[in-house]
Amino acid sequence: MSASTIPAPRTAYTRSKSSRSQFELFAWLFMRISGILLVVLIFGHLFVNLWVGDGVNAIDFGFVAGKWASPFWQIWDLLMLWLAMLHGTNGLRTIIQDYTEKKGTSVALQVVLYTASAIVIVLGTLVIFTFEPCPAGADPALLASFCTAG
Fold first, then answer.
1. How far is residue 12's CA from residue 31's CA, in Å, rounded to a whole number?
2. Within 13 Å and on the Cβ side, how many CA atoms surround 15?
3. What is the pTM of this model?
4. What is the pLDDT of residues 101-128, one digit of tens each?
5. Domains plus CATH for the chain?
């Protein structure tokens, strides 16, 4: 049995400062700020998509194509995608750190998490900015009804 010393009552507690605690502070702040921004972005998204106009019945390929024709909605959806993915990734990173006992398991899970998050962010960003509902040279039978043949 090892002997350990217990500090006397009322002894000041000293906390060692490290760059890791600074990172955790910024991660904690990011979660709060991104959470507030996500609430605004998501409720705005729901309001426009579900309540304005014909509501949920109007949501189809043409609705999304028309929405993404505007840079405003592209940026709106991009912010929603990036913030949601980074917010969720940070939350899962915290859960992995809290519940994994072995360092190797923690590192492996975090590599999988970061890889999956990066893939979703890159592919989602590409879809938002390269979406073309009426590609030139496509078979007219395959195009949406709002596309003009030309």
1. 31
2. 6
3. 0.77
4. 999 999 999 999 999 999 999 999 999 9
5. 20-142 (1.20.1300.10)
